[in-house]
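Reminder to self: tokens first, then the designed residues, so the page reads top to bottom the way the pipeline ran.
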């Protein structure tokens, strides 16, 4: 069955912890959005050296929307991230980054074709939005890309990030997503647990 990973996109420690507290009881792995203001025109509060303390007992992955990910990936792996996702658009080293560690995944922006995927990368994150902000509409091209990846690489593990909500989450999973990252639809909800449970129901 597909998994739902709540996204934490925060600009301060206070916002980070407020969002974590909203979703920690769900027991789902958390998706931590990391932005550097260079690869994307936004920054987030997500210091890797604080994660062991702030996310004690919580499984988490780090989504690195940063330039020069080669330098940051080892830091997040050492910080305890179960998975670290970098962007294909930020490096010429995607194949070797994936080859070196099976906890490393590659993400593709909506406009990046799947021909840019290296067959060394078994874990792929297809962006449903242009990275930088939560709450954007889902770009339907992501569904086509998921289906194509499933055809080309049937064993690929596919995460979809951005724009997922009640109207499209079933279609995202039907296209082949193993993990759906959900930000604002859960963290901005009055009752995040109810939304999470309703999404799980939709995916049964
Ligand atoms: C976009 C981030 C996403 C985002 C998801 O740059 O990588 O993880 O937080 O938020 P929603 O679900 O609101 O699009
Ligand atoms: Zn993300």
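Designed residues (204 positions):
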């Amino acid at each position: 069955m597909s998994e739902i990973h709540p996204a934490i996109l925060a600009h301060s420690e206070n916002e980070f912890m407020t969002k974590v507290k909203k979703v920690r009881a769900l027991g789902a792995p958390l998706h931590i959005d990391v932005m550097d203001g260079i690869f994307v025109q936004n920054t987030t509060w997500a210091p890797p050296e604080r994660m062991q303390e702030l996310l004690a007992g919580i499984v988490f992955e780090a989504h690195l929307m940063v330039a020069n990910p080669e330098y940051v990936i080892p830091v997040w792996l050492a910080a305890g991230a179960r998975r670290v996702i970098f962007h294909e658009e930020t490096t010429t080293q995607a194949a070797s980054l994936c080859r070196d560690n099976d906890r490393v995944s590659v993400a593709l922006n909506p406009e990046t074709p799947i021909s840019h995927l290296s067959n060394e990368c078994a874990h792929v994150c297809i962006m449903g939005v242009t990275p930088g902000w939560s709450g954007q509409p889902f770009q339907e091209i992501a569904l086509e890309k998921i289906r194509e990846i499933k055809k080309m690489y049937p064993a690929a593990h596919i995460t979809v990030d951005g724009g997922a909500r009640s109207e499209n989450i079933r279609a995202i999973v039907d296209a082949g997503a193993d993990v759906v990252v959900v930000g604002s639809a859960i963290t901005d909800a009055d009752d995040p647990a109810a939304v999470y449970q309703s999404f799980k129901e939709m995916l049964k």
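The two ends are 7 Å apart (CA to CA).
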